[in-house]
Amino acid sequence: MRGYALSVVQAVDAADGGRLEIKLARHCIRHNIPVVDVATYFGVSRQTVYNWFCKGVAAAPSQRARIEAFLLRAVGA
Fold first, then answer.
1. Among 3, 52, 54, 65, which residue carries the largest CB count within 10 Å?
2. For residue 57, which phi and psi values (nearest 5 degrees)?
3. For every one of its 77 residues, what pLDDT tens digit does the chain have, with 9 covering 90 and above?
4. CA 77, CA 71: separation in Å to the nearest integer?
5. Residue among 37, 42, 14, 41 at smallest CA distance from 26
6. Residue 12: partners with Cβ closer than 8 Å, 6 or more residues away
7. What's the CA gap between 50 and 25, in Å, rounded?
8. What pLDDT does 3 receive?
9. What percent of the chain has pLDDT over 90?
10. Contacts of 41 (CB under 8 A, 6+ apart)
11. Which of 72, 61, 73, 71 is nearest to 25 (CA)?
12. pLDDT the model gives residue 2
């Protein structure tokens, strides 16, 4: 949980685990991937990543495809 505020972790834990953005959030929290690294990788701001993780904001369609590919590589699914 290093690097993630308790409020972020709680919001992600309470969110719908079927959402792609929440799958990404849980992966990043579990593997201690900092929000700044996620933002840089996807070419978005840190605030955008927090919105995905905590506010229920859906990623743009172009980002969703990148998130899906990232998760497939990350978990080998």
1. 52
2. -80, 130
3. 457 999 999 999 999 989 999 999 999 999 999 999 999 999 999 999 999 999 999 999 999 999 999 999 987 64
4. 8
5. 14
6. 22, 25, 26, 29, 53, 54
7. 9
8. 76
9. 86
10. 70
11. 71
12. 58
Helices 35-42 and 61-75 sit at what angle, rounded to 10 degrees?
A: 120
Joined tokens for residue 50: 């927090």
Distance CA 22, CA 15 (A): 7
